[in-house]
What we know:
By secondary structure, the chain is α/β, with parallel strands linked by helices. The chain has a single domain (2-119), classed as Response regulator (Rossmann fold, 3-Layer(aba) Sandwich). The chain has six helices and four strands, in the order E-H-E-H-H-E-H-E-H-H. Strands 2-1-3-4 form a four-stranded parallel β-sheet. Strand 1, helix 1 (10-21) and strand 2 (28-30) form a beta-alpha-beta unit. Helix 1 (10-21) crosses helix 6 and helix 2 packs across helix 6.
Amino acid sequence: MFVCTANSARSQLAAALWQQASDVPVASAGTHPAAAIERGALAAAKRHGMSMAAITPRALVDVLEQGDWIVTVCDTAHEELGLDRSIHWSIPDPVRVGTDAAFDEAFDAIARRIEDFAPHLTPA
């Protein structure tokens, strides 16, 4: 489960990248979901040759299942959740900057971490 505050950029990109890298099921959610996925996130995925569905962001409480591992991809969600059983990747928020470069940097940072992490997990 990839989590950021709004579930509108980083966690959505992470879930899409994970689906390409692993057979382990994935979902994404937010602690305070936005109304829609950011256009910049959709455009970054497209620039990197990925198709990312423009689904509605979801709340973590509506998606989280018993036993899910949580990877927070933003500092605010990490601090808000304060979970022991989680992994935290501090990825700067591209929405605040709003440029293509900011979204591409977030995409690249998430992609590198997933590339390193995914081979260590297998489906249950």
